[in-house]
Design brief:
Elements: E1 3-7, E2 10-15, H1 22-33, H2 38-51, H3 56-68, H4 72-90, H5 96-105, H6 110-128, H7 132-145, H8 153-168
Antiparallel strand pairs: 1-2
Length: about 170
C-alpha cells in the first residue's frame, strides 16, 4: 500500500489513490502496520469494512489483505462484494449472455475494469479453493472479453488447462 505525506502543513499520511474518510484510511494503515499480527490486522480490516459504507476501495483492500493472508473464503467474499457493488452502481444484468457484450463494449471504463478484475480474482481464488470448473468458467469468460490480457483470465486459464494436461500425462 502506498502511503504519502500530503505536505509539511498536513503531515498526516494519506493513501494516495483512495478517496475515503480519514478513519477508514487510519484503519487500513493500522492493518498494514500490524500485518504480522493476523488477529489484530484482521480486526482493523473488519472495522474498516464496517464503517466504509460498502466502499469499492475498501473491498479491494480487504480482498488483497485476505488473498495474501491465504484466507481464501474471505478473499472470495470481498471479490464478490466488489462485483455486486459495481453491478449495482452500473445497473448490470445478472445473466452472462446479457452481461458479456456490455462488459466487452465498456471494458475501458473504470468501474467495468474493476468488475472484470474482481471477477477474474474470484476465479483465481476459486481455483485455490479447488473449485476448478467454476474457476475455468470465469477465466474463460474473462479471457473472451480481454483481448489485451489485462485482467488475468488468460493466465488463470492457462495454468488450469496446463495443470489438467500434466495430470493426464
Amino acid at each position: 500500500m502506498q502511503i504519502c505525506v500530503n505536505s509539511p502543513s498536513t503531515p498526516e499520511p494519506t493513501l494516495s489513490w483512495y478517496d475515503l474518510p480519514a478513519e477508514v484510511k487510519r484503519l487500513l494503515i493500522a492493518a498494514t502496520d500490524s500485518w504480522e499480527d493476523t488477529a489484530k490486522s484482521q480486526e482493523y480490516i473488519h472495522q474498516a469494512l464496517a464503517i466504509s459504507d460498502r466502499s469499492l476501495d475498501v473491498f479491494i483492500a480487504a480482498y488483497r489483505y485476505f488473498f495474501y493472508k491465504h484466507n481464501d473464503a474471505a478473499a472470495l467474499q470481498m471479490a464478490q462484494g466488489a462485483i455486486e457493488q459495481v453491478r449495482h452502481l452500473e445497473k448490470l444484468p445478472q445473466d452472462w449472455d446479457e452481461l458479456a457484450p456490455i462488459l466487452s463494449s465498456r471494458k475501458e471504463e473504470t468501474n467495468i475494469r474493476l468488475y472484470l478484475s474482481a471477477y477474474s480474482a474470484s476465479g483465481l481464488v476459486l481455483a485455490r479453493m479447488g473449485a476448478i470448473d467454476r474457476a475455468k468458467t470465469i477465466a474463460t469468460r474473462v479471457n473472451d472479453i480481454d483481448n489485451k490480457r489485462e485482467f488475468g483470465g488468460a493466465t488463470v486459464l492457462s495454468i488450469l488447462t496446463n495443470s489438467e494436461n500434466e495430470e493426464e500425462d
